[in-house]
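Cast an eye over my tokenised protein here and flag anything odd:

===
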Amino acid sequence: QVQLVESGGGLVQAGGSLRLSCAASGLTFSSYAMGWFRQAPGKEREFVAAIRRRGGGTYHADSAKGRFTISRDNAKNTVYLQMNSLKPEDTAVYYCAARSSDAGLFAVYEYDYWGQGTQVTVSS
């Protein structure tokens, strides 16, 4: 079955960096666009970044532009989210997700598979 396993979360001070990884199995990874979303306590899950199936294009939320970078390694079936200049408001559970199309990459409901999430906590 399809599995998406996130790693790399943790506690970091404001201004610090983390790199999240999401290892995929049970699917043809290069045939799926990948996204990162986050959910803070009491808030809805929100789009952070996405990358097209063959890495031809990336998209970042306004809150992530200039600080976060999504990338993928199709040979390793892994998608990454490099997060720099972290702020306390970035604190959330971060999820990766897979979608079998390059369309609709901003919408939570468009994705086919989800990981279990990894906690990111940024202290001030």
In short: DSSP finds no helices and eleven strands in the chain.
